[in-house]
Amino acid sequence: MNLLQVDIKEAGYYDYKKAVKNIRFSLEKGKIVGLIGPNGAGKSTIIKSIVKIIPHFIGTIEFYNRPPRFTYIPEQPIFYDELTLWEHLEVAAAAYELDEKLFFADSEKLLASFQLTKHKHQFPGTFSKGMQQKAMLIMSLLIKPDIYIIDEPFVGLDPRAVLRFLQILNLEKTRGAGILISTHQLDTAERVCDSIILISEGQIAIEGSLTEIQTACNLTGASLFDCFNALLEQ
Fold first, then answer.
1. Beta carbons within 8 Å of 59's beta carbon, 6+ residues apart
2. Has residue 177 got a pLDDT over 90?
3. Binning pLDDT at 50, 70 and 90, where does residue 230 land?
4. CA distance 147 to 70
5. How high is the pLDDT of residue 1?
6. What pLDDT does 38 receive?
7. Rounded distance, CA 119 to CA 201, Å?
8. Burial degree of 133 (CB within 10 A; 0-12, 13-18, 19+)
9. How far is CA 75 from CA 11, 104, 155, 161, 182, in A?
10. Cα 62 versus chain centre, distance
11. Which of its termini does the chain have fewer beta carbons within 10 Å around, N or C?
12. Is residue 194 very low, low, confident or very high in pLDDT (cuts 50, 70, 90)?
């Protein structure tokens, strides 16, 4: 079952309106799709197009659930300066009308999982990049959306936090959520993604499962890293 259909004819910025073009893919229920590619390839532009925060866009983005219930975690965390972490969680709970008892139980569990319990009454603006990333992840996971749209989720996370996040993502996948991740972490993408989309110079160079990509590259059993390099050298 499709949760999201992406068809970007072109998208970009005021000075570069065709940063990406001819991007078409879908996100299915219970699947993790990875967007990979070198810096400047267009991964973040695709994500910004999906969440409609891009200056120039021609195409269609279709969410199949109505109303769409998704969360977006940007590469650079965003917080309200005047709110503590706990107050951010309360705002999210109110916006999505979460059950109060479940909110308290889930919040405390997630805070403990990401080692932020003792920081919950502090201002996220004072946190390190890694702590800010954890805070954004907690807010997203708390809502239990149909779709996660995540731009570089592993930047700044310590190995324990990465492991815990991947465990939770697998649980969310089992629940039926669709997850779109943009990442430079090829080894992680190889392990967790059901489908991988390589973006090069603003277009899709190849997409499919790791096995399908290995076959297309004539590199049976190769790592995603080796396939990635082979494709970019063509």
1. 6, 7, 8, 9, 10, 11, 23, 49
2. yes
3. confident
4. 5
5. 86
6. 87
7. 41
8. buried
9. 19, 27, 8, 16, 9
10. 17
11. C
12. very high
Helix axes 85-95, 129-143, angle to 10 degrees: 20
As a whole-number percent, the residues of the chain with pLDDT over 90 amount to 79
227 CB neighbour count, 10 Å cutoff: 23
Model confidence pLDDT, tens digit, residues 84-141: 999 999 999 999 999 999 999 999 999 999 999 999 999 999 999 899 999 999 999 9
Reading the block at residue 103, the tokens are 């909110």
In angstroms, the CA 200 to CA 203 distance is: 6
The tokens describing 202, both together, are 């603003």
Report domain extents, the chain: 1-69+149-158+178-234, 75-144
Determine the residue type at 74.
Answer: P
Structural class in CATH, domain 1-69+149-158+178-234: alpha beta
Residue 223 exposure: Cα atoms within 13 Å on the Cβ side: 9
- Dump pLDDT digits (tens) for 37-67: 988 899 999 999 999 999 999 999 999 987 8
C-alpha of 196 from chain center: 13
The burial class, CB within 10 Å (0-12 / 13-18 / 19+), for 89 is buried
Backbone angles phi, psi at 58, to 5 degrees: -130, 125
Question: Which pLDDT score is estimated for 68?
Answer: 83
Rounded distance between C-alpha atoms, residue 11 and residue 54, angstroms: 7
Q: Which amino acid is at 87?
A: E
Query: Which sign does the torsion angle of CA 202, 204, 206, 207 carry?
Result: positive
Measured at the alpha carbon of residue 25, what is the angle toward residues 21 and 29, in degrees to the nearest 5? 150
